[in-house]
Every structure is written in structure tokens, then in C-alpha cells.
């Protein structure tokens, strides 16, 4: 069971087929049942205050656990406002990376092959510079088998956000990958 302290869960979502959700609308909680073959999976939980959390859950052989997300409330420290401003900045960089139009952010196009995996071609195609640096890559499955992309494999020191447009690629298919880092 998952619940948000002091709030009701509005939505639980993630990769299709990783888990099923049974909501308890009366008390605003949700029950998660993982797919049998998954050892770990990501779940996004949104509450009625508009906040969203990403949880990385692992499956264990034992009794079920209750996960309580402590929302932190609106304390005087302004943390939730800083988090919202940071999330807005991340969204601005992501939109600038995806836009073909001129933006107010310094950006440049490139065509640099970056070694990633043997069965993939990973090409850096656009960079947005600023307090947050955005990188847009095109990832192509060069193998003869379907490829599943796990965003966690793309994290490195300084990365604050990773987004993969399509997480499953058939042979020769391509998807956009966005990586946002701090500290230029």
C-alpha cells in the first residue's frame, strides 16, 4: 500500500505492464501489485496537492510493506517553492531541447556520437547551456533484438532528470533521450 501523509493519492502511473494499481478512493491510498517477472520498477505517485514523486520499488519475497510518503507540508522554509522553481527550470530546458524554434536559452546543434552500448548508436544532437545544461540525444537500436531502455542506466554524477521518449525499441528504431544536468 502507498499513501501520502496528509493528502490523497490522485494518480499512480508508470511503465505499462510493470505493475497493476488498485486504488482505494475512500481513503486516498493505492495498492500496487508488481508483475511477476519484474525485480524492480519505477512508480510515479501524484497527490491532490499537485506534487509528484518517483519511487523505485524492488520486489522481495516476504510480507507486503506500507509506503508512507511524507509530503513535508508547506513549512516556512520555502522548500516546496524552491522545488517547484527547480522543476519549472528543468521543464524549460526540456522544452528548449525539443523546440526547433528560437528560444531565449543559449543552444547549439551538434552531431557527436557518444559511446554507450555495443547494441546502440547514441548521438548528441542538441545542447542547451545555462545553470542547467540540457542534452538531447537520438538513440538507435543497432541490434537484431528488441531493446528496453531503463532511464536509470543514463544517470551519472550531476544528472537531475532523464527522459526517454520511447522505452522499448525494435531493431533499427530510434528514440529521443533528454538528459538535464546541474553545474553546466
Plain-language structure description:
The protein has 2 domains: 69 residues, no CATH class; 80 residues, Sandwich (Immunoglobulin-like), CATH 2.60.40. It is 11% helix and 47% strand. The longest helix is centred in the middle third of the chain and has 20 residues. The N and C termini lie far apart (39 Å).
Helix content: 10-25%
**Number of distinct beta strands:** 14
CATH superfamily (homologous) name of the largest domain = Coatomer, gamma subunit, appendage domain
| Main sheet attributes: strand count, strand direction, barrel closure | 5 strands, antiparallel
How does the overall form come out from the CA principal axes? globular
Give me the CATH architecture of the largest domain, please.
Sandwich
- What structural category characterises the helix and strand content? mainly beta
- Name the quaternary structure: single chain
Radius of gyration: 19 Å
- Whole-number average pLDDT? 83
CATH C-level name of the largest domain: Mainly Beta
CATH topology of the largest domain: Immunoglobulin-like
- The residue ranges in which pLDDT falls below 50 over 5 or more consecutive positions are none
Element-level helix/strand string: EEEEEEEHEEEEEEE
Strand order of the largest sheet: 8-9-10-14-12
Q: Compute the separation of the termini in Å.
A: 39 Å
Number of helices: 1
Tally of separate domains: 2
Organism: Tepidiphilus thermophilus
Pfam family, one: TraK_C
Domain TraK C-terminal: 128-181
Domain TraK N-terminal: 2-69
Amino acid at each position: 500500500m502507498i499513501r501520502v501523509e496528509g493528502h490523497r493519492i490522485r494518480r499512480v502511473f508508470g511503465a505499462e505492464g510493470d505493475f497493476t494499481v488498485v486504488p482505494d478512493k475512500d481513503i486516498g491510498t493505492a495498492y500496487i501489485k508488481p508483475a511477476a517477472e519484474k525485480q524492480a520498477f519505477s512508480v510515479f505517485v501524484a497527490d491532490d496537492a499537485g506534487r509528484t514523486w518517483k519511487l523505485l520499488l524492488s520486489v522481495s519475497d516476504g510480507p507486503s510493506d506500507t509506503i508512507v510518503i511524507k509530503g513535508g507540508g508547506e513549512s516556512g522554509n520555502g522548500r516546496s517553492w524552491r522545488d517547484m522553481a527547480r522543476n519549472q527550470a528543468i521543464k524549460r530546458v526540456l522544452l528548449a531541447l525539443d523546440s526547433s524554434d528560437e528560444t531565449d536559452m543559449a543552444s547549439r546543434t551538434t552531431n557527436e556520437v557518444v559511446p554507450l552500448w555495443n547494441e546502440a548508436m547514441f548521438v548528441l544532437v542538441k545542447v542547451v547551456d545555462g545553470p542547467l545544461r540540457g542534452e538531447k540525444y537520438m538513440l538507435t537500436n543497432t541490434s537484431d533484438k528488441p531493446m528496453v531502455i531503463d532511464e536509470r542506466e543514463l544517470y551519472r554524477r550531476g544528472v537531475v532528470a532523464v527522459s526517454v521518449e520511447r522505452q522499448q525499441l525494435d531493431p533499427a528504431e530510434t528514440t529521443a533521450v533528454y538528459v538535464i544536468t546541474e553545474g553546466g
